[in-house]
Design a protein that fits this description.
alpha/beta, 8 strands, globular, 8-stranded mixed β-sheet
Length: 250
């Protein structure tokens, strides 16, 4: 699903760039298919991302976008510096969203990004997925124990004390066999108290070895739409699924 997308949803009008990246340095999550879209060829990554970023720059010259989101199937800090540097004019004086594994997030990382990108506001999304540590670590294999939640909250507190324009948002996963609906609800309520925003993400199974999908009940759907800051129902089919289907049919 790499590319450039125009969205207008609960977060408002925004431009979303989904870039190519190196394989995630963690790479052990039990449900993640993003490695199928990633590359180990630096020049391939740089040229692909330049094309998307420059098209985004062309769009913002004629259309008003105050919010730009950049995702790369991993952590922002794992992108090549060339890509990060190309993003500077897009980020400057706008709300700029990135995502990252929690272990890459430090006070220095946040300050350096603010210094380089000069955004109006920096929004950092973190995929904690579920409040229950056993599910998160043993079943989802996230490598983000409760101690990481506490550490990020401390960074949030320190950053907020300095008055820096940074928000921390959390992903909560639903529609996956490992997470009962009551745990989804519990997670939304829990993370809403601690962080600046919560985004509910509908799980989609892309590979045979991945966990099974579960249909969300109407009660859960209503709860998510009312309580989450954004719900991603995953209606689009990613290129990785198409490629996998083509591979299996040969």
């Amino acid at each position: 699903m790499q590319g450039l997308f125009k969205l207008n949803d609960k977060l408002g009008k925004r431009l979303v760039l989904i870039l190519k990246n190196y394989p995630c340095s963690w790479g052990r999550c039990s449900f993640c298919p993003f490695h199928l879209e990633q590359s180990t060829n630096t020049w391939d990554i740089i040229t692909f991302n330049r094309r998307i970023i420059r098209e985004a720059l062309r769009i913002v010259e004629t259309e008003e976008y105050e919010r730009i989101a950049v995702f790369n199937g991993g952590s922002f800090s794992e992108l090549p510096y060339d890509t990060v540097n190309e993003l500077v004019p897009l980020a400057k004086n706008r709300v700029f969203e990135i995502e990252s594994r929690s272990n890459f997030i430090t006070e220095d990382f946040i300050r350096n990004l603010l210094r380089l990108l000069e955004p109006k506001k920096l929004v950092v999304r973190i995929g904690f997925e579920v409040a229950d540590q056993y599910i998160r670590e043993k079943l989802l294999r996230k490598g983000m124990p409760d101690s990481e939640i506490k550490r990020i909250l401390w960074i949030k507190h320190r950053i907020r004390e300095e008055g820096l324009p940074v928000e921390f948002w959390v992903y909560v996963l639903f529609g996956i066999e490992y997470i009962p609906e009551e745990k989804v609800i519990e997670s939304i309520k829990y993370f809403k108290k601690l962080f600046d925003g919560v985004i509910a993400i509908k799980y989609k199974k892309y590979l045979p070895e991945h966990p099974e999908e579960k249909t969300a009940s109407s009660a859960l759907a209503r709860f998510l739409e009312e309580e989450a800051d954004l719900v991603d129902w995953g209606g689009e089919e990613w290129e990785i699924k198409k490629r996998n289907n083509e591979k299996n049919s040969k």
